Each structure stands twice: as C-alpha cells, then as structure tokens.
Amino acid sequence: MDIRIWEILIIAAGLSLDVFAYTLWKGAMLLRLEKGPITKIVLLFTGFQMGGLLLGNAIAAIPAFSGRLEEAGRLWTMAAAIIFFVTGGVMILKAVLKKKEKIIERAQDRYNYRMITLWAFITCLDAILAGISFGFLTATLLGTVLMTGVTTAAAALLGIFCGYRFGCSPKNTMVGIGGAIIIIGGVDVLLHYYGVL
Fold first, then answer.
1. How far apart are CA 180 and CA 178, in angstroms?
2. How many whole angstroms separate alpha carbon 172 and alpha carbon 152?
3. SS3 category, 102
4. Cβ–Cβ contacts within 10 Å for residue 160, how many?
5. How far apart are alpha carbons 50 and 36 in whole angstroms?
6. What letters, b where the CB count within 10 A reaches 16 and e where it falls short, cover 120-133?
7. Cβ atoms 83, 129 nearer than 8 A
8. What is the pLDDT of residues 60-111, one digit of tens each?
9. What is the spatial distance between Cα 148 and Cα 75, in angstroms, rounded to a whole number?
10. For residue 31, how far is the Cα from the chain centroid?
11. Which residues share a beta bridge with 108?
12. CA-wise closest residue to 56 among 26, 27, 83
C-alpha cells in the first residue's frame, strides 16, 4: 500500500506537536531569545526526529519483515495502523495524566543541553514507531524524512517563541492534540487500505 503525501504530512504534524510541547516549556524558561542556542535546540529536535524515522524505517527493512512484505501486506498495513493508534494513545494518555500537574516556570540564563538532548530523545521514540509504520506502508523514505524534518523544525521554533511570549500552559493540550492527529492518521491508513478513501 502506498501512502499519500498528505497522509505523511498529517503524521509528521502529529509528531511535531510533541516537539512543540517540549520547546514551549523551554521557551517559557528563557530570559532572552538568542539565535545561536535556539538554532542548536531546533537542530537537536529535528535531528532526533529525522534519525528516529530513519531508524524505524531500517527496522521495517530487516529481511525477516521486508522479505514477507508482499505476502503479508494486509498484516503489515494493520500493524502500521496499530502502531499509529498506540503512539497516539500514549501521547493522549501522557497529556491527560499530566494535565493537573503544576508546571513551574523558572527563568534560566543558561541552556541545559543535556536535558534538551534527553527531551529530543524522548520525542524521537514516537518517530521510531512512525518510521516502522511508514516502512510497512512503503512510504518514500526521503520525502517522509524531509517532511518530518521541516515540520519538526517549524514546531520547535514556534514552540520556543510561543513559550517565551505566553508561557507553557498549553503544553499538555498540544501533546494530546498531536496524539489525536496520529490516531486520525491510523484511521486514514485503514480506510485507504480497505478502499473507502
């Protein structure tokens, strides 16, 4: 089953909202906006998201999986949809469980790149699962990675600026919305496969 560009864009947008939430939090802690450190943060998140997609796609290309892709196309399509459902569900659950959590915004004059790298790694776990799904759906690797990279960079940049201006109160809501978008992508995969779309 070939996945269409707008379907890839939906999943990329959902993944990017998780990044938006983390960078929103970081933006709320900044005393001032500095071009160099912001560029490093955007590159860290973008690199991890793109790397996660590549790793997930590589996992889907393991001969034990890919060798049977044609004979088990229905199974892999269902697996891809389930992965999208689980990824979206985890993001929504994370948003709901942390909804009542009090977020303490403390202005910082320094950038803790160790913590930011950890955040980027955490967000890339969803991208790894999405990469596996895209691999099962035989999505174009270059287009998928580039589209996710562009949406992630935009979400990270926007998150930092919105956090700096407005604080981080919408953080959990954005993660939940991102999860819902990924679930919609899973539904779309099933509808496309069964010929409804």
1. 5
2. 17
3. coil
4. 25
5. 21
6. beebbebbbbbbbb
7. yes
8. 887 766 555 555 556 667 777 787 788 878 878 877 876 666 655 556 656 7
9. 25
10. 27
11. 30
12. 83
From the list 187, 3, 22, the residue with the least C-alpha distance to 116 is 22
Distance CA 31, CA 185 (A): 38
**In this structure, what token pair is assigned to residue 94?**
């994370």
Question: Token pair for residue 57?
Answer: 């796609």
Q: What is the number of helices (H) and of strands (E) in the chain?
A: 7, 0
Could you please report the per-residue DSSP string of 131-161? HHHHHHTT--HHHHHHHHHHHHHHHHHHHHH
Structure-token pair, residue 97:
């469980």
- What's the distance, CA 99 to chain centroid? 20
Cα-Cα end-to-end distance for the chain? 13
Q: What is the pLDDT of residues 154-179, one digit of tens each?
A: 999 998 888 888 776 666 677 777 77
